[in-house]
Design brief:
5-stranded mixed β-sheet
């Protein structure tokens, strides 16, 4: 995976690509970091005489272009598109791919905001959807109808850390004439590259691991098909939810350290999952790096490492899970994920409240961790006291 990126025909390692793709030195000053082009419009050399194709920053901005080139290179795609948020990217994708009456297969474990987009927004536009366990290829196949235009996958999934065999589901989708969309947010392109496994579209919330520092909100789409790329770019401009130049610059900065951060996230999460699996108050640990995880073998096949997200269930039900979140000190109680600092949350009451009562409802005793890059010993000690302390 680390040698699949190329430059002038020569292989490039992922770490090199992360630092250099799209990051051309400024031709005027030689600045090694692309400038923040905080500009709305551009001087034209006569009517229609655009410099570098720039006319208005909703349509294109040089800082965003640098990020989009970087995203395409990291995922091994033809075109990357950067948006104001992950949900803005998803909205653009759905309105590009779908028409009223079309059908989408969505996973039975997905980010609550994605489910809300389908359930409360897209469905009002006449798009139908049904739920499948995407870790089961037969379940996906059974959910597909003659009107299915897309199969939506998260792997690892949010918040139950389910694993989907991307290559297998890609074949099922292809046979049905549907596009396979993979939300790669939890893995990042450093750990997993869905396009190489047969996916048609990769989705990212760049807010998470791509930015990596809890200081930016953004989203991305990456595709290999040129016609689809052109269609998405048209809709991105027509709908306008683009990534601003400063946000694009922040994500570009974060991506430079993505490989080293993901290595540390994965190492720390492995230690956390191992400790939790031995704790008497923990009834189940959900982490694809554990050999007993049902998707472990597939994850080991399609991922470089197992990432920084760990979920677990505690004895005592919902109130006990909430109490663990409240007692954590080093783990910050908060939504989102993927930053250098560790976060803890109760999905049922926080990030996944929108799926309550649906097929995607999460267990009430579930706690989700975004394991940061602090000292692993400190993280383990904090979780130990949060679990050991009784009200």
């Amino acid at each position: 995976m680390s040698d699949t990126h190329s430059h002038n025909g020569a292989p490039r390692g992922f770490e090199t690509t992360a630092i250099h793709a799209g990051n051309t030195a400024d031709p005027v000053t030689g600045a090694v970091v692309p400038p923040i082009y905080q500009v709305s419009t551009y001087k034209q050399d006569g009517v229609g005489g655009l410099r570098g194709g720039y006319e208005y920053s909703r349509s294109a901005n040089p800082t965003r272009t640098a990020l989009e080139e970087n995203l395409a290179a990291l995922e091994g795609g033809r075109r990357g598109l950067a948006f104001a948020s992950g949900l803005a990217a998803e909205d653009c994708l759905l309105r590009t791919l779908l028409s009223p009456g079309d059908h989408v297969v969505i996973p039975n474990d997905a980010y609550g905001g994605t489910f809300r987009l389908f359930d409360k927004v897209v469905s009002r536009w006449g798009v139908q959807w049904s739920v499948a366990d995407t870790s089961d290829v037969d379940s996906v196949r059974a959910a597909i109808t003659p009107r299915t235009k897309a199969v939506w996958v998260e792997t690892p999934s949010n918040p139950l850390l389910g694993i989907t065999d991307i290559a297998a589901v890609a074949q099922v989708a292809r046979e049905a004439g549907a596009r396979l969309v993979v939300d790669n947010t939890f893995a990042s392109p450093y750990l997993q590259q869905p396009l190489a496994l047969g996916a048609d579209v990769v989705v990212h919330s760049m807010t998470k691991y791509m930015g990596g520092h809890s200081d930016v909100v953004g989203g991305a789409l990456v595709v290999s098909d040129q016609a689809l790329a052109d269609d998405l770019a048209y809709h991105q401009n027509a709908m306008g939810a683009v990534c601003g130049p400063f946000d694009a610059w922040l994500v570009l900065r974060g991506i430079k350290t993505l490989p080293v951060r993901m290595d540390r996230h994965s190492e720390n999460a492995t230690r956390v999952a191992d400790m939790l699996s031995r704790h008497p108050r923990v009834t189940k640990v959900l982490y694809p790096g554990l050999p007993e995880h049902p998707g472990h073998e597939i994850a080991a096949k399609q991922m470089k490492a197992f990432g920084g997200m760990v979920s677990f269930r505690v004895e005592g039900g919902e109130e006990a899970a909430v109490a663990v979140c409240d007692r954590a000190k080093l783990f910050t109680l908060g939504e989102s994920l993927g930053g250098v600092e560790s976060l803890i949350e109760h999905p049922g009451r926080m990030t996944h409240a929108s799926v309550a009562g649906s097929d995607l409802e999460v267990p009430a005793d579930l706690v989700r961790l975004s394991v940061g890059i602090e000292s692993a010993d400190d993280l383990l000690a904090d979780l130990q006291q949060a679990l050991d302390t009784r009200p």
